[in-house]
Amino acid sequence: MLERRLLIVSGKGGVGKSGVSAALGILAARRGKRVLxxxxxxxxxxAAHLGVDSLTYEPTRIRPGLFAAAVDRSHALEEYLGLxxxxxxxxxxxxxxxxxxxxxDTAPGIREIVTIGKPIFEVLRGEWDLVIxxxxxxxxxxxxxxxxxxxxxxxxxxAVREQASRFESTLADPSISGLLLVxxxxxxxxxxxxxxxxxxxxxxxxLIAGVVANRVLEPLEVESGAVDxxxxxxxxxxxxxxxxxVESQAVWxxxxxxxxxxxxxxxxxTPAEVSERLAEICESFA
Amino acid sequence: MSRETTTVIVxxxxxxxxxxxxxxxxIRLAGSERRTVVMTVDPARRLADALSLHxxxxxxxxxxxxxxxxxxxxxxxxxxxxxxHRYSDPDVAERLLKNHYFRAIADRFPAAQSFAAAETMAMxxxxxxxxxxxxDTPPSAGGLDFFLAPSQTAELIGxxxxxxxxxxxxxxxxxxxxxxxxxxxKIADTILGGPLLEDxxxxxxDLRTMYDQLAARAETIKRHQQxxxxxxxxxxxxxxxxxxxxxxxxxxxxxxxxxxxxxxxALPLEWTTASRQPIRGIPDPELRAILKANLIRWGGxxxxxxxxxxxxxxxxxxxxITVPWVADSPTTVEGLGQLLADxxxxxxxxxxx
Lengths: 286, 353
Prior knowledge:
The complex is a heterodimer of chains A (286) and B (353).
Chain A: E1 6-11, H1 17-30, E2 35-39, H2 46-49, E3 60-63, E4 66-70, H3 73-84, H4 93-104, H5 110-125, E5 130-134, H6 138-145, H7 147-154, H8 159-172, E6 177-183, H9 187-203, E7 208-216, H10 226-229, H11 234-253, E8 261-263, H12 271-282
Helix pairs in contact in A: 1-12, 3-4, 3-5, 5-8, 7-8
Chain B: E1 6-11, H1 18-31, E2 36-40, H2 45-50, E3 57-62, E4 69-73, H3 76-87, H4 90-98, H5 100-108, H6 112-127, E5 132-136, H7 144-158, H8 160-166, H9 176-179, H10 183-192, H11 196-208, H12 211-227, E6 229-234, H13 238-251, E7 260-266, H14 270-274, H15 285-309, H16 312-316, E8 320-324, H17 333-339, H18 347-350
Parallel strand pairs in B: 1-5, 1-6, 2-4, 2-5, 6-7, 7-8
Antiparallel strand pairs in B: 3-4
């Protein structure tokens, strides 16, 4: 999972994308890679999961080998025009970026290409062994993944189009880029994940590198009905809640690929503790 | 109408159980002999089945087995078509609906679904058909967009691009060619590789004709929102709790004051103390050990929840209403009715009698 150059991490809102992104970043850095973890949209839980107050557009060094940054649109747009499209500095850059910024509010694909362009650009720059993108939730992911095609469909020629087709082929190259889907074993999260898998498989924009089920509960080692038979009180109530949740999780786990599963972490309080622990757990499969 | 329409807005981050809580609130209102409608956004399939919602439709349909309850599922595209037809000239409307930027805006503008929801709510209130309306909000920006969308939409339609291109006055179509002659646009088009800006500008000009009416409409929608009872739903997980804080910080902008925070999937705090006491009444030592270890884990979670929620309700002066964590989210109207039956403090907020 960490052998490619770009790993995009997405999933339904609230399933723990940022925690998994941070954990994989920590793990890869521990293995000696030079890693950049990018929060693609705001607000993101990424800073908290990396144990810092906030992230900026300039990468912050979190620990040896691990850097993190947050994409904001106006910086990304400037970089897109200057560094990516090589618009000459002699041109009135401010006005130009104004024009494009208002255009981005209206024309399909511009906002998205600037945002998805950032992690791809970082990969193409060659400064990092691995770029991990804490991506927008599934509901919006499709418009980001298809932004390069949207642009090439809309713009007949020119630098924007060329850059868009470079992005398109980088995303589609399975030796460079992969998508990791995070889900929890619950109805809405699993159904959205399955829909996304079907759509991405059909459109072939990017390789799906894995589907990770997060917050999976371990069954209690008791005979069925044993908890029910216990007399009333908190031990029984907590036991029934646990076995009931395990049962309903099992239904949803059956309908996603049998990929790595991350446990529900009891007793972890801060986001930074969660990602540290997840990094240890990911050691076994990533 | 014998009394004013009661409007309840259930908002909060995605995945906290907003739609379930909305449906449960609506069932309670219908149970108090109010002709009630619940407007859902993207309900889970089993919940949709329970409410007999089988397709997107802004038009409510009756919920089987619950007297006085109707339900609908937001159809954002249809709402936008409605908006265009209501607020622009017929020929402009036709041009807009055919324009491919229009679809892009309706689908991608983050607040578009939220605006559609707010507009649909307003129309339901104005129809005079309902004693009670329960609105489930789109998850965009943790539910905030539902409240901010009316102004944002007017701003979008007002056209940052148009204003930037032409100054504050609304230009006629014949000016289009004059301002696209601006050198900066020539450069932009060279880079973009096509007459993209011109296309967009033409589209925005059409959209701009709706501005005045839409801006007035946004004010009306905001007043409806301010009069409604707003419930902020959350779980004790860090991400939704952060959204709740943001919600309170930013809602003052639109003068909306939430009536309560609803903590969904709440664990009993007494599990924390119970897990420290010896367990009686389970003779089998192995089973006893397993259930004790399990109670200690969940007791720790109960403690974590209490810590996460500490101070939120107090800080903002609103009650905290807790809805217990049930293993299987209710998917029948009976189950939905029971979800809130023993919940303290909710009924006085949603019914004024």
